[in-house]
Design brief:
Blueprint (H helix, E strand, L loop, with lengths): L4 H8 L13 H8 L9 H7 L4 H6 L5 E6 L5 H14 L3 E5 L14 H29 L5 H18 L15 H8 L9 E5 L10 H20 L3 E8 H10 L10 E3 L4 H15 L6 H6 L16 E3 L5 E4 H8 L4 H18 L6 H5 L2 H16 L6 H6 L5 H6 L4 E2 L1 H14 L12 H10 L3 E7 L2 E5 L17 E4 L4 H4 L7 H4 L10
Parallel strand pairs: 1-4, 1-5, 2-3, 3-4
Antiparallel strand pairs: 6-7, 8-11, 9-10, 9-11
Helix pairs in contact: 2-14, 6-7, 6-8, 6-9, 9-10, 14-16, 19-20
């Protein structure tokens, strides 16, 4: 017999699957798996394990305006942080705009055109004052990038001529320019030499999905589109949650011009597995070829997890003796944060149990906590769209008849509609935008928020399809023959008294490259 991938791994590392015995204290857990919010990670660690997908390549392009859209926990902020850091490394000037930068911006006008102009003026002044901070750093602090320093010196000269004040007078005050003066300034030949990239992140903080929220965000989108169109050397990169983008896109016809600039931040489970492998390997100081791993079948790269995890899940039912990677991939909603959360919880349990690797018992003991957190996160994320979303999710718990069927969370289209019809007969739900609530609308909503996934079997293998992959699978007009399944991440929260049965009910995901 030939040597297996796992045996090759053992041989490569001196006959050991693990480089060392791991003590899963908090420092070690964070060092291996990273921060749940990757943007809070140190930039050095984040860049060491960040997996650069096609979305990264798109966002790094020279397109003037790109809007990164995705669910919470898919890494939008992390991507912007990596790009911003690389801009500095590559000689571009990165300007990061956060919610505290716009807190005093007066966008209270009822006139939509005035809102746009307010945003343009406000962003222009935020950008110019952040550039002034760069300027002071270049002139009065240690600046090893000599070309950048010389460019900033010329920028200072240009700025003083426009503002009419000496540079020394500008160090302790904010500059106020109109967007028209800002445009004139940026059309100077100096700015053709160096690109300015503006990153706008977390500006949907406090989003409540009101008409005023929609108008304000729509005005901002129009403003950055105008600014990016007028100044070719100025690029904008904006991150928005998917629910926020949907609300604006479906409520304001002016945003159709932005639609072509939208990049969806999504991950395949295979990419997330490679991301986990990269985090583990960089923690141990080893290098990998991530592009090579992305091309391989998951069963042929699973041995990389042996440094941290038990090889197989010692469970029952469909989960009996399953490879650990299939268990992990089946429980996450294609969000890196889900995997980090699950691994962190299990590693903490391993520490309590005195284990040097994460065992089946460690994972099983945190499924309830992990599932409850996912339901809470989803309720928080989408209550601005459906205020009673948590009630809806909890009322999707299996009935006694459904439990007796053996597949309590798996529905045909007709069964899902009947289930929601029964839920509606006992509850009153209201969409924030006023659209009518029907079983079909609720089904589409549950599919959109990834509470239910579409499911099909190919050659005896099960695959799940998410809304972001094909938003038209569930619609009012056509049945494409999919069944619908409550995602396994929520099962323990919905079945707290019959958790052992879940292993017999949930069939693990079959995974392959790029799925």
């Amino acid at each position: 017999m030939g040597v297996t991938f796992r045996e090759k791994r053992v041989q490569k590392h001196g006959g050991k699957n693990k480089s060392t015995k791991i003590e899963f204290n908090e420092d070690t857990i964070r060092a291996i798996f990273g921060h749940e919010a990757a943007e809070d990670e140190t930039i050095e660690r984040l860049k060491s394990y960040y997996l650069k997908t096609s979305v990264y390549n798109s966002m790094k392009s020279n397109v003037p305006l790109l809007v990164l859209v995705g669910h919470k926990g898919v890494g939008k902020s992390a991507l912007l942080k990596v790009l911003s850091s690389e801009d500095a490394d590559d000689g571009r000037v990165a300007v990061n705009v956060q919610p505290n930068d716009i807190v005093n911006l007066d966008i209270s006008s009822d006139n939509f055109l005035e809102k746009i102009e307010t945003w343009k003026d406000g962003l222009a002044n935020i950008i110019i004052n952040k550039l002034l901070v760069y300027l002071n750093s270049a002139l009065f602090e240690k600046q090893e990038d000599i070309p950048l320093k010389k460019w900033m010196e010329r920028f200072g000269e240009l700025l003083t001529s426009v503002v009419g004040k000496k540079l020394s007078d500008l160090q302790n005050e904010k500059i106020t320019l109109s967007s028209s003066d800002f445009t004139i300034l940026f059309k100077n030949a100096l700015f053709s030499e160096k690109q300015i990239v503006v990153y706008l992140d977390d500006l949907d903080r406090g989003w409540e999905n009101t008409k005023n929220d929609v108008k304000n965000l729509s005005a901002m989108l129009n403003a950055i589109r105008d600014l990016s169109r007028d100044m070719k050397n100025l690029r904008f990169r904006l991150a928005l949650r998917s629910d926020v983008y949907y609300a604006v896109r479906t409520s304001d016809e002016t945003t159709d011009k932005i639609d072509g600039s939208v990049i969806w931040q999504s991950w395949s489970n295979h990419e997330i597995l490679v991301m986990l492998i990269k985090r583990i390997e960089t923690y141990f100081g080893r290098t990998i070829d991530e592009n090579d791993l992305l091309k391989k079948h998951q069963q042929n790269i699973a041995y990389y997890l042996d440094s941290v995890f038990e090889q197989r899940f010692q469970g029952n039912g469909h989960w009996e003796n399953a490879p650990m990677y299939r268990v992990l991939m089946s429980l996450i909603r294609k969000r890196p944060r889900d995997l980090v959360k699950l691994c962190t919880l299990a590693a903490r349990r391993a520490y309590i149990n005195g284990h040097n690797s994460i065992l089946t018992s460690d994972l099983k003991s945190v499924f309830n906590n992990y599932s409850n957190d996912r339901l809470t996160d989803t309720s928080t994320e989408y209550k601005s769209e459906l205020p009673q979303v948590q009630e809806l999710l909890l009322k999707m718990k299996p009935s006694q008849k459904e439990l007796q069927s053996g597949t309590p969370c798996l529905f045909t289209r007709e069964q899902l509609i009947k289930k929601l019809d029964n839920v509606l007969s006992m509850s009153h739900f209201t969409f924030k935008d006023g659209k009518p609530v029907t079983p079909h609308n609720l089904a589409a909503f549950l599919f959109k928020i990834n509470f239910v996934t579409a499911r099909k079997e190919y050659n005896g293998k099960i695959f799940r399809v998410y809304y972001d992959e094909n938003q038209y699978i569930y619609n009012d007009f056509t049945d494409f023959g999919y069944s619908y399944e409550i995602h396994p991440a929520y099962r323990w929260a919905l079945q707290p008294t019959s958790t052992n049965d879940i292993f017999k009910q949930v069939e693990l995901l079959d995974t392959a490259p790029n799925r």
